[in-house]
Amino acid sequence: METILGIKGADFVMLASDTMKVKSVMLLDDENSKIHRLTDYSMLAAVGDGGDSLQFSDFILRNLDLYRVTNGYDLTISGAVHFTRNNLSAYIRSNVRYLVALLIAGFDPCSGPELHYIDPFGSSVPIRYGGHGSGINFCTPIFEEFYKPTLDKRTAYNIIQKCVAEIQKRLVINLRNFDVFVIGREGITKLDPINQVSLRAQLMGNPPTRK
Length: 211
Description:
Blueprint: E1 3-8, E2 12-18, E3 21-23, E4 26-29, E5 35-39, E6 42-48, H1 52-71, H2 77-92, E7 100-108, E8 112-118, E9 124-126, E10 129-133, H3 136-146, H4 153-170, E11 177-184, E12 187-190, E13 194-195, H5 196-205
Antiparallel strand pairs: 1-2, 1-10, 2-11, 3-4, 5-6, 6-7, 7-8, 8-9, 11-12, 11-13
Helix pairs in contact: 3-4
InterPro entries: Ntn_hydrolases_N (IPR029055), Proteasome_beta2 (IPR035206), Proteasome_bsu_CS (IPR016050), Proteasome_sua/b (IPR001353), Proteasome_suB-type (IPR023333)
Keywords: Cytoplasm, Nucleus, Proteasome
Subcellular location: Cytoplasm; Nucleus
């Protein structure tokens, strides 16, 4: 029931993920963010089976830290994507397989914002918007309707809010809280989380008009 979402704007990328950790029908933790910092200008969001997403994410983070210490500079976003998908596909051919799907997002001073989709088989493609998990089935039509390449941060945040509201409306398991991060020229910024309280406040501030 996990969900991660990403959307690319004119000069930024926004990532969102639920914070629930569940086992069967039991809620274990409601502060378990699935978004991890790779560098000062890139982040990784992962969902997967059991501890696969946590273990594989930690493996990628530690190796990118080692690369920075060894070389004195961070790996590029494209390089991080290639390293991640190469290791993920290599594990498929071994006795150890990670059932994990990822989004890698970041801002490059030369190429601008980047958002990459990586599936559990190690295939990768750059995207404008997308995600993984159960909630993406309800979010894709919202992205298609409201997305514009020139959208600003406020508009992107509002689109994510629409997606979260639809997920909470349609899924049996209630993903109550979503962390939201934006990556731009100034680096990584954590935005206000999206939850039932914030959605209710938005609805009260913008009541529906009667026809």
